[in-house]
Design brief:
By secondary structure, the protein is an alpha+beta fold. The chain folds into two domains: 1-34; 47-202. 36% of the residues lie in helices and 19% in strands. It has seven helices and seven strands. The chain has helices at residues 26-34, 47-58, 62-78, 88-100, 107-110, 122-130, 207-222, and strands at 6-11, 17-22, 135-143, 146-154, 162-164, 174-175, 184-191. The strands form two sheets. The protein has a five-stranded antiparallel β-sheet with strand order 6-5-4-3-7, sandwiched between helices. The protein has a two-stranded antiparallel sheet with strand order 1-2. Helix 2 packs antiparallel against helix 3. It is elongated. The N and C termini lie far apart (86 Å). 25% of the residues are buried. The model is unreliable at 1-38 and 40-45 (pLDDT under 50).
Length: 223
C-alpha cells in the first residue's frame, strides 16, 4: 500500500540530486508535462540530431551533416530547452532554420507528415510504412513516456522495413521489428535532397515592408 506522499530523486543536468515530495502517480504526471513530448532517449540526449545526421549519411552527403551540425549548435544556444530533448515544434522550427539557410532539402515533403493514424504496434506500423513512397523518413517513436528519433527506410510494398538507430559507424540498417518497445509513433518527415535549393521566403519583404513599399509607390504616383 502506498504512503500518502513519496520522495523521488531526479538527476538534474548539473548531476545533483533533486528531491520531490509527490503523491503516487504524480511523478508520471510531472514527467509527461515536462519531458514526454521530447525525444531524448540517446545516451547523449541528442537522438534527434543523431537521426538527422544518419539520414544525411544514408542519402550520400556527409558534408551536409557537418553543415547541419553547425546550424544545430547555433539553434541549441537560442533554445536551451533542447538540452532535455527535442519536441515536434522545436524540430519544425529547426527545419525552418535550415530552409532559411538554403540547406538543400525538399521542404514540401519534410513538413508534410504522412501519418494517417496512431500506431501502437510495430507490426502494424511496418505495414503502414510499406504503403508509403520509397524514401528516408525521420521518425519520432515512443516507448512509454520516453521519445526517441530514428530513421525509417521505406523500400516499397514488398520489402521489409529497416531503420537506422544512432549515428555511430558502421551505419547498418536493422529490421524495424527490432523496435519491440515501440508503443506510439509521434511524427514522420520524408527527407529528400534538393540540390541547388534556394529559399524564396528569405528573399521576400516582410508584410510591413511590403505595405510601406506600396505607400511609397502611391506617393510617387501622386507627384
Amino acid at each position: 500500500m502506498f504512503a500518502a506522499n513519496i520522495r523521488i530523486g531526479v538527476s538534474s543536468l548539473s548531476g545533483k540530486l533533486r528531491l520531490f515530495n509527490l503523491r503516487p502517480g504524480a511523478f508520471a504526471n510531472y514527467y509527461k508535462k515536462h519531458f514526454a513530448r521530447r525525444d531524448q532517449a540517446s545516451p547523449a540526449g541528442g537522438c534527434f540530431m543523431d537521426a538527422f545526421r544518419a539520414a544525411l549519411y544514408h542519402l550520400g552527403d556527409p558534408g551536409l551533416a557537418s553543415t547541419a551540425t553547425e546550424l544545430w549548435m547555433n539553434f541549441e544556444r537560442d533554445h536551451p530547452g533542447t538540452v532535455d530533448g527535442v519536441s515536434r515544434a522545436e524540430a519544425t522550427e529547426f527545419f525552418r532554420v535550415l530552409q532559411r539557410n538554403d540547406f538543400p532539402l525538399d521542404y514540401d515533403l519534410l513538413f508534410q507528415s504522412p501519418l494517417d493514424a496512431s500506431y501502437t504496434d510495430v507490426k502494424r506500423f511496418q505495414s503502414f510504412v510499406q504503403s508509403l513512397r520509397e524514401g528516408v523518413y525521420l521518425t519520432s517513436v515512443g516507448d512509454g513516456l520516453v521519445g526517441h528519433c530514428v530513421v525509417v527506410l521505406a523500400k516499397g510494398p514488398d520489402a521489409a522495413v529497416s531503420v537506422l538507430d544512432g549515428v555511430e559507424p558502421p551505419l547498418n540498417p536493422k529490421p524495424l521489428t527490432n523496435l519491440e518497445y515501440l508503443d506510439k509513433v509521434k511524427w514522420m518527415g520524408l527527407m529528400k535532397l534538393n540540390p541547388g535549393y534556394r529559399c524564396r521566403r528569405g528573399k521576400r519583404k516582410s508584410r510591413p515592408n511590403r505595405k510601406k513599399a506600396r505607400c511609397e509607390k502611391k506617393k510617387q504616383q501622386k507627384l
